[in-house]
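All the exercises in this workshop are built on plain-text protein records. The record below serves as our worked example for the rest of this section.
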Amino acid sequence: MSIELKLSRINRVYRPSEVVEGKIIVRSSSSISHYGIRLAVNGSVNLQVRGGSAGVIETLVGVAKPISIVNKIVEVRPSGKIASGTSEIPFSMNIKQPGEKKLERFYETFHGANINIQYLLTVDISRGYLHKSLSTTMEFIVESDKADLLERPVSPEMVIFYLTQDTQRHPLLPELKSGGFRVIGKMSTQCCLSDPIVGELTVEASAVPICSIDMHLLRVESILLGEKIVTEQSLIQTTQIADGDVCRNMTLPIYVILPRLLTCPTVLAGPFSIEFKVAIVITFQSDVAKVHSKSDPTTPRLWLAMESLPLELVRTR
C-alpha cells in the first residue's frame, strides 16, 4: 500500500495568492476504509545556530523558535472507502485566503546553512486505532506575489572595483607585494533573481602569473538570539571566470547564474536577515598554494587577492 502527492505544476512553484492543485494517488491491493482524508499546508522559518561555528555558547544553540508563516488543514474527503488498485483523489487548496489574517509575511523558499524557509504539503488518511494512518509530505516552492514585487526595474548601474597589492588587508607573497598587480572590473550589485549577475574584468598587470580568477557567491545569515545577533557567512557556489595566466588588458565577461533554492530576495526581518555578497578571488601561481589545495577558498591567503561586494537580490514583476 502506498500514497503519493502529485502537484499540477512540475516545477512546484506557487505564489501565496494562488491555489495549489494536484492529486493524491493511493495504490492498494485491497479496498480500505478510512475516517477522512486531510491535507495540511505548513510554512515556517526555521532558525538554528550550529554550536561553535559562530563562537556562541552552547546554551544558545537552537534557542531561536521557528517562525510560523502558514498552518492550515482542509478535509479533502469525509470518512469512506478507497477501492483496490490505483485511486486518484483530486484536491485544491488556497495557501492564503483573500482577506485572511496571516501569521507572518510569506517569505520566499530558501535553503541556507542556518536559516531554512520551507513550505510543506502533508496528506493524512486516518484509519482508526487498529491501522497506522497513511501519510506523505512534499515540499513546494513559494515565490513572492506579483502585487508585492518591485515595480521599478533593477538599477542598471555597475559598481567599479579594483584589486591591487595595496587594497589587500592580509599578508601577500613577497614577490606580489614588491612586483604588484592591478585588476579592474565592474559588476551589477543589484540583481533580479531570474537574471544572471553580469559584469566584466580586466587584468592590467601582474608580476606573478595568475592561476585562476573565481567569483564566490556568499550568503550572510543573521539570527537574533536573546539580545545577541549571530551572523555567519557561508559559500553558496563558485564560478570560474578565467583559468591560467590571463592575457593582459583583455576584457573578460562575468556571467553568473543564481541557484534557485539557495538564493532568495534579500530579507531584513526583525528576528533574522538573509543577505548576499560576491567575492572576486584571484589565485596566483605559487608552490605554497599546492600544499594548501583543500583550504577554504574565501579565507585570505598569501597567494590570494580578494575583493567582496554586497549583492542585493530582488524579484521583479
User: Anything to note?
Assistant: The first strand starts at residue 2 and ends at 7. Residues 174-179 form the longest helix (6 residues). The helical segments are 174-179, 287-291. The two ends are 44 Å apart (CA to CA).
